[in-house]
Amino acid sequence: MYVRVYLMSSIAQKKRTERLNVRVTEAQSRLIRLAAKETRANMSSFLVESACLRAEEALASQQHLIYNEKQWRAFLAALDRPAREKPRLRKLLTEPSVLEKR
Q1: How far apart are CA 82 and CA 23, in angstroms?
Q2: pLDDT tens-digit readout, 6-18
Q3: How far apart are CA 69 and CA 2, in angstroms?
Q4: Fewer CB in 10 Å around end: N or C, the chain?
Q5: Helix or strand or coil: residue 93?
C-alpha cells in the first residue's frame, strides 16, 4: 500500500470560455442576488466562486489515503496516544477574543 492524497487547489482566475445554464426558483434567485449584492460581487462571479468552493469541499471529502504497513501502525499509534495538556491552546480557547472584549 502507498499513500495517495487528492487535494483540490483554488481555481486560478482564467479567461472564462465555458457557459453553464441553470434554472432556479424565484426564492433561490432572490437569495442568490441578495448574497451577491451584500458581498459586492456580480451574479456570475458570486455563482462561480460559490460553486467552486462547494465543488472543492465535495472533492476533498472524497480523498483517500493508502498507507503501507509501517505508516498504518504509526498512524494508529498517533491516534491512540493520550491527549496532552496544551496550556497556550487552553488559554486561547477560554479567554475572550479581541472581538468579544469591550
Answers
A1: 52
A2: 444 444 557 888 9
A3: 9
A4: C
A5: helix
3-class DSSP state for residue 28?
helix
- Exposure pattern of 21-43 as b/e (b: 16+ CB <10 Å)? eeeeeeeeeeeeeeebeeeeeee
**Assessment of whether the complete model's pTM goes beyond 0.70:** no
Q: How far is CA 42 from the centre of its chain?
A: 22
What's the length of the chain? 102
Cell 487552553 appears where?
Answer: 90
Report the distance separating Cα 67 and Cα 4, nearest Å.
8
Residue with cell 483554488: 10
User: When comparing pLDDT for 65 and 71, which is higher?
Assistant: 71
